[in-house]
Amino acid sequence: MGTKEQLKEERDKIVKGLEETYRRLIEYKKQKKSPMIVVRNGKIVAVDPNEILPTTLYKRHAG
């Protein structure tokens, strides 16, 4: 396996880990009935975790 393939494999593992972490965070916030604190349009806001999708997909750029 070449370096490029190794980097792609590692990147894919990292992305899967981030997606799983996000899913677990949303699940935890729903259990605790705790708002998600996020930045929207440069402002810090509290969002009800029930309004957030339980999964997200990382958008990979070509290249």
What does this structure look like?
With 63 residues, this protein is α+β, with helices and mostly antiparallel strands. Helices cover 48% and strands 16% of the residues. It has one domain (3-51). It is built from one helix and two strands, in the order H-E-E. Strands 1-2 form a two-stranded antiparallel sheet. The longest helix is centred in the first third of the chain and has 30 residues, at 3-32. The protein is elongated. 0% of the residues are buried.
Instruction: Provide the gyration radius in Å.
Output: 16 Å
Beta-strand content bin: 15-25%
The low-confidence parts are none
Mean pLDDT across all residues, rounded? 87
The main pleated sheet reads as: 2 strands, antiparallel
Helix run count: 1
Shape descriptor reads: elongated
| Topology, number of strands | 2
Number of domains: 1
- Distance N terminus to C terminus? 19 Å
Strand order of the largest sheet: 1-2
Helical content band: 40-55%
Helix-strand category? alpha+beta
SSE order: HEE
Overview in brief:
This protein is an alpha+beta fold.
Top keywords for this entry?
63 residues; two-stranded antiparallel ribbon; 2 strands; elongated
Map the helices and strands.
Elements lengths: L2 H30 L3 E5 L2 E5 L16
Antiparallel strand pairs: 1-2
